[in-house]
């Protein structure tokens, strides 16, 4: 049977796949990039609200592992120090792409995310990468070849013919947004070669709550405010200071997306709606001699709390009888209850919006079985995993793309150090 031969073959022409292909090709090695989608880089295109938050400056000068969710977060350290945020920024600048820092170190294109896709395509073209889009992989087989130099190790049967390669890189990403091409291919291929999979779940995703509309919360849809959100207890407690967004069907906004990556079903969330004020103490200590009504006092003490939310809160049965009462006359027990309810609003999510609306996947190929310096499988020579297909999930804010770039660079350098072009 005829087949095309390449030094390296990459399945998945997303962020990590294109980065790796460009690097391998530019080192003079023959490389093919296969994607089942006809349009490449779709996740880049829709990322960052169309402006692609392509990296985060917080990843310069530290080990970075605190920004990643994984059973082994320290796995990221080598790759992120080998190829840091500045390295990607240098590439962006070399291509004349204008960018800005939005907040918390997040870098976005001034124009559109398409500029990042075009940059990666140009980089691939410089490396004479062989593109195969709209190409479905039907089978991956390890060839029984002697371990001699340059022998092909894999055969990949596709709808566009059969390929053979010495190095096979799986860059098929996670399960988020199946509508634009996400599949479980990477996990299935990993399992085929004996890898274990940390169960994949939606991450960076809006959360839902039972009886949300019955309790009237749907009426708050559209309200956004800065909060502190937490989940877990003791050393497992994680919290974020970010914006919360009320939605028709639950909660979203950066605060909820971030915490969703840590939330475990059955666990509750605590939302501090007034994070800069100990409201219970302020309400009790400030009431003496006050003739203003409780609702006015609350507005003064919580200037960032939108009126619509505050009115909703005071309309709850436990507080409604006191809303128009003179502040000084409201019993301390009620003020404590009110303050605590806003400083520590406790909610039990019933689930999430799922992969359809997620920005990432938590879980994936278990990194215990992958070499952190090369991204090569410890179970199958010549097989590599890069990007989100692995059990590495970054925080919101450019961390996922930086992982895609950095893991791709490590794999590219590893394969380029093996054999002649
Ligand atoms: C709405 C949204 C916004 C986001 N915004 C940001 C952001 O601003 N900053 C950030 O850092 N991260 C963001 N992310 C996350 C980021 O897009 C991903 O983490 C990143 O794209 C992962 O790169 P990857 O190369 O591993 O996978 P992907 O970029 O997802 O690429 C995987 C590729 O594999 C292909 N593929 C899948 N299955 C197969 C198969 N069976 N055969 C062949 N090809 C296959 C897909 O078509 C795709 O081209 C966002 C994600 C979403 C969904």
From TrEMBL:
Keywords: FAD, Flavoprotein. Transmembrane segments: none annotated. Gene3D superfamilies: FAD/NAD(P)-binding domain, HI0933 insert domain-like, Translation factors. Residues 8-413 form the RsdA/BaiN/AoA(So)-like Rossmann fold-like domain. InterPro entries: BaiN-like (IPR004792), BaiN-like_dom_sf (IPR023166), FAD/NAD-bd_sf (IPR036188), RsdA/BaiN/AoA(So)-like_dom (IPR055178), RsdA/BaiN/AoA(So)_Rossmann (IPR057661). Residues 202-359 form the RsdA/BaiN/AoA(So)-like insert domain. It holds the Pfam family HI0933_like. Its cofactor is FAD. It comes from the Bacteria. The keyword Thylakoid does not apply. NCBIfam families: aminoacetone oxidase family FAD-binding enzyme (TIGR00275). This is Aminoacetone oxidase family FAD-binding enzyme. The lineage of its organism: Bacteria, Pseudomonadati, Pseudomonadota, Betaproteobacteria, Neisseriales.
